[in-house]
Fold this sequence. Notes:
binds 2-(butylsulfanyl)adenosine, 28 helices, single chain, 18% strand, DNA polymerase, domain 1, CATH 2.40.50.140, 38% helix, D-amino Acid Aminotransferase, Chain A, domain 1, alpha+beta
Amino acid sequence: MVGRADDGGAGDMTEGAAETDEAAAEARLAELALLIAEADRAYHQADAPVMADADYDALKRENAALEARFPHLKREDSPSEQVGAAPAEGFAKVSHSQRMMSLANAFDETDVTDFVAGIRRYLGLSDDAALAFTAEPKIDGLSLSLRYEGGRLVTAATRGDGAVGENVTANARTIADIPQEIPGAPDVLEVRGEVYMSHADFEALNRRQAEAGGKTFANPRNAAAGSLRQLDAEITRSRPLRFFAYGWGEVSEALADGQMAALDRLGTYGFAINPETRRCASVGEMLARYAEIEQARATLGYDIDGVVYKVDDLALQARLGFRSTTPRWAIAHKFPAELAWTRLLSIDIQVGRTGALSPVARLQPVTVGGVVVSNATLHNEDYIAGRDARGNPIRGGKDIRVGDWVQVYRAGDVIPKVADVDLTQRPGGAEPYVFPTSCPECGSDAVREEGDSVRRCTGGLICPAQAVEKLKHFVSRAAFDIDGLGARQVEAFHADGWVKEPADIFELKEKYGSGLQQLKNREGWGEKSAQNLFDAIDERRRIPLGRVIFALGIRHVGEVAAADLARHFGSWDAFISTVDRAALEPAAKAADAKARKATLAESPAWSEITAIDGIGDAVALALTTTLEQPAERASIDRLIDHLEIEPPPARATEGSPVAGKTVVFTGTLEKMTRAEAKARAEGLGAKVSGSVSAKTDLLVAGPGAGSKAKKAEELGIETIDEDAWLALIGDG
Ligand code: IVH
């Protein structure tokens, strides 16, 4: 790095040195402009950051320091003049009537004290004159500007480059926290705030995406950005986005005299205002609030990356005004980066339910963002090698070795990961890590299929690690959910050899329950809890088909796919006999997707499975290969003998006006959620589809319906509103 602003002036140097210094500064400024622009594009347009926030902040600071030292070298495209990145292609552009600004950053208490002192100086206020600030969490999402005219939402736009953003109005209308109409609002009202996703919703979304074989997101911010910036608003609707209002743009009449009061007013209009927001009367109170919010951070349930302080008095805000991209009256006090460096002590391999070998880094314990971390994920063998399957570099192509000095990253509740390695600190003699090609638990071959980044143990049920993980999955909430039999208990039963596979659970009483003596004598079990366990197990002998299919823990068969399969087949026999037939077909044997596709046409059972909405080749292949493995199949057959499997609820299709019809819902539904509408329609024998095509029989369009309504009109498809739909199905 070239000198910083506080390194001392060029005057201290000889002329030659100053020239060299200046040339170096110019080159570095050019480099920084490129690096920052690239990072901005990745973050704002592709929703796929290429560097940690802390590294980005450091580059911006280095740039600002160089510009302060060599003002004449400031570039036309200086990063300090840019906010975000120009809007992405694909969305209509919206010019913001007032620029959407960014915030200057404070990294420590001195920065905050300087900020307040600077404001006092600017306003000519003495040290003891009253000056209040609001302090509120800085939400880690993406900003959105909502324009209301005559109390109706007319435009929603992302920040873009601050001057021009993307028009995401249809998408914003699908977010429950955003009012569509505000009775009594000023004629023109622009509300600004942050769209974000809660940790719980983020995890559930990633689970759903993974099950459906879709894209998963690295963190809640990316998930929120990726979900809002969808060209099809129906996708946004299916994503659990939320919104906190923190400010405003153009308004035709003042909302209040103070920031806090204006936020309260927005609250009365129906916006969510962050409940952690406080008014602080001094720097001491601001810093105390910062500490409190930092403490609360882990339990808020959504990501924040600092605290924003704003001058409360709006008349003073107006006097203070703006610099080129940031207000003088506000600052973001950032939390320290959730990064730390430590020594990699060893690499362990864990074996999961589907046999995946997952490398885990055992670390010299280190505090990262206030939490002691001693384990972190290393993802897979490519990640360790620093090359993907195609040989492209990952993390700059640096491999990770035991003994290395590594950077650990954690955010919110996300599992910590090894994010980087410092090659200059590599101990002499450190050897490249050799990923095992046999399972460390059972010794079976561990193989990697083409196109898969994961290596898997081929031991199936003979692998104790897979068996235990399968059992844990079997008793989990969405599967058998047996009261009193959680992950810990099945692990103990497995260790003692009482439960080796699911069927053993249903034979526990017979084998070990005599007089309850044996179970009672086990640690942690008394007469009552033992009896309760047997009762709970008995209760689950009758169980819906979808739960059984899910409980088997077959790769790619999550809750949703299991429910789809159950709905289609209706009974275990129909399901298993079709899988058996499919397994005999050439498609199931074909090694690669292309060969499978080529044989599909002649494979009726295989085609029946893959024709189910939401079920593709990957699921069909996983079903056939798993269920045809002799040991696996014997274990499943043994289980099924203990069960009375309930068919999915029968469809009340008799006399249903929509039975057999393909229905599409679009726009905002006001009397039911999307999930309810879908379930109800399916219960009446309709097929609910996500897109309009020539096969669509009926479009149910709520307010805000867009491209789908247009397409239906073009295709001459009958379109009705929500009330007409309810009347049609007899709920009106
Ligand atoms: S005020 C003119 N308040 O942080 C002031 N911003 O780095 C504009 N952000 O673009 C911003 N929480 O996306 C403000 N409570 C909050 C915020 C917040 C998150 C974001 C916002 C802004 C960025 C600035």
